[in-house]
Design goal:
Chain lengths: 448, 203
């Protein structure tokens, strides 16, 4: 058991941070299963990150007054129980409520795991394991969530977390760490935390929007989308060797990382087609940027600052409130853009139907079926296949109708891609703001 | 690695990577992956139809007429079609524009020689009328040259367009029988009026 304590605590930290984005690829499935709206389903992500961001600092403060192993075990147990509750939620309101409870448990578990890992491995190695577990969790969360959604169901994302968390409870109880009673000797590191918050907002744009674009806009299944977005964590792994090769100073590495994320988001805003290959290089830029920034900024925010757990709370808070700010800015923008995209999409569809090489009566039959489908799917990207299946078209005209269906789908894909453009560009703007916080001149008190 | 290089090497690599990726995206049409833009309805376009006979003529007339109406209303053909489909009833302005667009379509087809002679679809038209069999057979027996001399397609169409109840037609687009029941008397009346005028002119 002793040898499993460290890995189990690291997995718990990774699970909590993975939960920040693990449901991203499941959102379309949740949207359909719980019969809700894009705006509401975004709260499955927002609620968790908001509560985790708000609870992290108070949770860290509680650790000054209680045994870390008991608090950590309690946090992990609450996290596990709430994960199970998420899996059985029958309405969007219940799911959002369960996610809030999950985040409270997650906040206690996350800061507790830091204390226990430091006690278990020692200061330097313990912090490194905690930070690395967090980065791995953040980067791989959407991929794991997508594969589980496609392979089993969206509920399985929450179910699989329960056994890991249950095993981590005795692991937490096995580490006899003392409460952190050191007084607040250092103020929170403003600059790295601000950069972290802005980058988290930008990375949210990259993952959240890309996943929605792939699944809803380009009609790819969650497994394909998961494999596609796995480019980000793979590229993040390459950041370290590149930094070792070029040996840049830390702030130069972070600045270059911010620039790469901004560049990647601009690339995602302007794909030349809906071929998945066009997302690979922009995602690689985002992944490289992620690998150069998040762990380094987290370490900078905590470096030589006491009490350690309080500053860990601030970094968690900065990251997750950054995600919330990103979602709060981007969700209304892209939902409004999707709404606005309906007019050009409908006009493009109308043009193709009017000019289709079909007899007039078949055109009218298809136009009527399409009209019904567009009314039924108000606010969502419609599935035209059922309209074509319903339309009463002469058998000899079926090949021409099938070609028309492919052409109309292509127009919908173009309209959806265009609708996401502004949101990706706003994400790039957030990454450039993060870059500004890195390169802005430092005051005397900030000089290292 | 020397100290200055440590400061500039990674930014240069990052800049090159971003420029390379964005350059390739833009050179392959990145930024232009958008839905079709509606064409200018005031610019003449070629229209075709997969139908035959009267349906072929009707579809081409409607497509050109929509362009003409949209041009008059300063909107696109697609936007006008969607408006007409989504409204309960077309406005007076839309009906006037549609009628004017159909007249302009007849004029354009006459000008560019794509308006068929009336003899080419007289048999099909007769099959859809309620005339007695003897009269139908008599008209069918007439040489094409006589029919084409007596009736001009553009004249018949213009008369029919003037008499059409466009509101009713738009409401019955999905019902072929209703459409035929509405169009046939109008076309018959247009043919009769054209013949009477022709006779009056001869006298």
């Amino acid at each position: 058991m002793r040898r499993l304590v460290g890995p189990l605590l690291a997995v718990t930290a990774a699970l909590v941070l993975a939960d920040s984005a693990v449901v991203t690829l499941a959102l379309p499935a949740i949207l359909r299963h719980l019969d809700t709206t894009v705006g509401q389903v975004a709260w499955v992500l927002i609620a968790f990150n908001l509560v985790l961001g708000l609870a992290a600092v108070p949770a860290a403060a509680i650790y000054a007054r209680a045994q870390p192993r008991f608090l950590s075990a309690l946090g992990i147990a609450v996290f596990a129980g709430a994960s199970a509750w998420c899996a059985v939620a029958g309405s969007i309101e219940t799911l959002i409520g369960a996610r809030c409870v999950q985040a409270v448990g997650g906040a206690l578990a996350l800061v507790g795991c830091l204390e226990l890992l430091v006690e278990h491995y020692g200061e330097r190695r313990g912090v490194t394991v905690w930070v690395t577990a967090g980065v791995i969790g953040t980067a791989t969360g959407p991929v794991a969530g997508g594969l589980l959604t496609e392979g089993i169901s969206w509920q399985s994302i929450f179910v699989v977390q329960v056994p890991f968390a249950v095993l981590a409870v005795p692991a937490a109880l096995a580490v006899r760490a003392r409460p952190e009673t050191a007084p607040d000797r250092h103020r929170p590191a403003l600059r790295p935390n601000l950069t972290l918050a802005l980058l988290s907002a930008a990375l949210t744009a990259a993952l959240f929007l890309l996943v929605l674009l792939l699944v809803e806009g380009w009609r790819r299944d969650p497994a394909t989308a998961a494999l596609t977005v796995s480019v980000v964590p793979v590229a993040a792994l390459l950041a370290h060797p590149l930094a070792l090769l070029l040996r840049p100073p830390p702030h130069v590495e972070v600045a270059a990382g911010c620039f790469l994320i901004a560049g990647g988001l601009v690339g995602l805003a302007i794909p030349p087609s809906d071929h998945l290959a066009w997302t690979v290089a922009p995602q690689a830029l985002v992944g490289l940027g992620l690998g150069m920034t998040v762990d380094r900024l987290t370490a900078q925010a905590m470096e030589l600052r006491l009490p350690r757990i309080r500053h860990a709370g601030w970094t968690i808070s900065a990251r997750h409130l950054g995600v919330v700010v990103g979602l709060a800015i981007l969700t209304p923008v892209f939902t409004a853009d999707l709404q606005d995209a309906q007019v050009p999409a409908q006009e493009a569809i109308t043009a193709l139907v009017l000019d289709a090489p079909l007899p007039p009566q078949d055109k009218i039959a298809i136009a009527q079926a399409l009209g019904d489908e567009l009314v039924d799917e108000e606010g969502r990207i419609p599935d035209l296949h059922s309209a074509f299946a319903r339309a009463d078209v002469a058998p000899e005209q079926r090949p021409a109708a099938a070609q028309l269906e492919r052409d109309l789908d292509a127009q919908l894909t173009r309209a959806a891609t265009h609708a996401f453009r502004d949101s990706f560009l706003i994400g790039a703007g957030l990454a450039l703001l993060a870059l500004l916080t890195v390169v802005a001149p430092r005051g005397r008190r900030e000089q290292p | 690695m020397t100290q200055p290089w440590r400061f500039v090497a990674l930014p240069i690599v990052a800049l090159a990577l971003v420029a390379g990726v964005l350059g390739v995206q833009v050179s392959h049409g990145g930024g232009e992956y958008e839905p079709l833009h509606p064409a200018d309805p005031c610019v003449a376009r070629e229209v075709t139809s997969q139908a035959e006979g009267i349906d072929n003529l009707t579809e081409r007339l409607v497509l050109l007429g929509l362009d003409g109406a949209a041009c008059r209303l300063e909107t696109s053909r697609e936007a006008l079609t969607l408006e007409l489909a989504q409204q309960d009833e077309p406005t007076d302005e839309q009906v006037d524009a549609l009628r004017a667009g159909l007249h302009a379509a007849v004029a354009r087809m006459k000008k560019d020689g794509t308006l068929p002679k009336i003899s080419s679809f007289v048999d099909e038209a007769l099959d859809n009328t309620d005339l007695n069999g003897f009269l139908k057979a008599a008209i069918k027996a007439l040489p094409d040259s006589v029919i084409d001399a007596a009736l001009k397609t553009d004249d018949v169409l213009d008369r029919a367009i003037d008499d059409l109840d466009l509101r009713e037609i738009l409401a019955n687009l999905d019902d072929q029988d209703e459409l035929n029941a509405q169009l046939n008397p109008v076309v018959e009346q247009a043919v009769k009026d054209a013949l009477v005028d022709r006779l009056e002119n001869l006298i």
